[in-house]
Design goal:
mainly alpha
């Protein structure tokens, strides 16, 4: 009934998975342990998604998935900065 999810679907999932981690990362000191965890914890999740959905590793897939990864991190960071700017002091 359902086909294997496409590479585009995986890229969207990667983006969504990374938004909360980008949000977390934006609230930490750069290169600290929490920052490192916020950047690298989603990697096994992304690999698990790719393997469970049966999408093979190809060098051609890398730019799309890395772009989605960094876009999710950036979007989460922007949400954090937006929230911090709107918070009354």
């Amino acid at each position: 009934m359902f086909d294997t999810p496409s590479l585009l679907t995986l890229a969207i999932a990667v983006l969504i998975v990374n938004v909360p981690f980008g949000y977390w990362r934006a609230g930490t000191e750069r290169f600290s342990r929490p920052w490192f965890l916020a950047v690298h914890t989603p990697v096994p999740v992304v690999v698990a998604l790719r393997l469970s959905w049966g999408i093979a590793w190809h060098v051609g897939n890398l730019p799309l998935l890395m772009g989605a990864y960094f876009l999710g991190q950036m979007a989460g960071g922007q949400m954090r900065m937006w929230r911090d700017r709107r918070r009354p002091r």
